[in-house]
Amino acid sequence: MEFRLWHYFAIFHLIWGVIISRWLYRLLHGGLDHLLKEDPEYAKQFEPFRRKDIRNWNLYEIYFCAIFLLPYRFAANMILLVILGVLCKALTFGVDLNKEMSLWRRLMIRGVTAGLTRLMLYCCGVYHIERKYHKITDFDPTYPKELLKRKERAPIVVSNHISFLDVFYFAVCRHNPCFMAKREIADWPIIGWIVRCKQGVFVKREDRTNKDAVLAGIKERVRQVQSGQHYPPMVIFPEGTTTNGSAVMTFKRGAFASLAPVRVMCLEYPRKDFNPAYDNMNLMVTFVLMLSHFYMRIRVHDMGVYYPDHLNLKEESDWEIYASKVQQIVAKCLNVPVNPMSLRERMEYYYYTEGLKEKFKKERSKKKNELAENAAKTKRE
């Protein structure tokens, strides 16, 4: 029998279908018990970090897309990521990235990163990005209308943080922001090349408690942009962690310490039967399940630049007034409450669910051993 191309595809999908179906079955029948069988009264206090959509998942869609779309989407994303990294490396070869780049190089980098990242989003099922533009006064009536006419460039973009797709979007975003990263990432292949190419800010910090380096990096980028230098603005997620989108967490100091204007944006994932939020479900599991859906939706709200002049902020310690104002605007735009929780509460909930995970794992193992012993005993009799 002569094998044709479609035969190889059929064999591949048969083998792959068995492998991924077994994995999904184990995941859906016990692998998520730590999220489904938590104490509702205790977990209720961690509402912004809970995964509440599991019972709404369309299992037919997940199985079908996992068998027929997942391998190609995953491979396409990896290939595009490598191509993007190599092109970023080539475009910045021999260039001092601590200095301003020429106009043609900035335009090339912006086109390459935005174009390839948009293709990656397409391969993740994000076929359309819904953009909505608002005014600050739509959500804060006390904001002076004359400030809406100012056209100064904001050195910082702030947004809520839900999913790793947020990073993909801001790589496509017309404001062309960069990111802050640990110093070690600058030496990484692919990811490091991309972040360096975008003139991201790298900070050296031995532990997460060292905030001085972070603040210094932010203030330096603010100074560069406000002095008219051609550096990209920096996107900051002031909540300091991800949520499921049901609330806006307390905003941290970093984005507001310099008291500089900020562009206010926020993201939503409107699909109700699957939330791509990076929560207590394993990151790779979230990524695989996201690719196992026909489509994902992103809704972006851009409210323009917030100038804090009217707040009469005189000292850096006044940043909390500024942060609170912007937090209220984001919450009103998303129509969700403000929640005083932070990364500390998220980690508390994470350790709680990890404890449940280990507990249920031991229970399944014990039950499996008991069944095996009973089967062996029955066989001997």
Task: Explain the overall architecture.
This protein has helices at 5-31, 33-36, 40-43, 59-68, 70-91, 103-123, 165-172, 191-197, 212-226, 283-291, 319-334, 343-380, and strands spanning 129-133, 156-158, 180-182, 201-203, 234-236, 262-268, 298-306. It has one domain (32-353). Strand 3, helix 8 (191-197) and strand 4 (201-203) form a beta-alpha-beta unit. The chain has 381 residues and is of the alpha/beta class. Helices cover 48% and strands 9% of the residues. The strands form two sheets. The protein has a five-stranded mixed beta sheet with strand order 1-7-6-2-5, with helices on one face. The protein has a two-stranded parallel sheet with strand order 3-4. The mean pLDDT is 92.
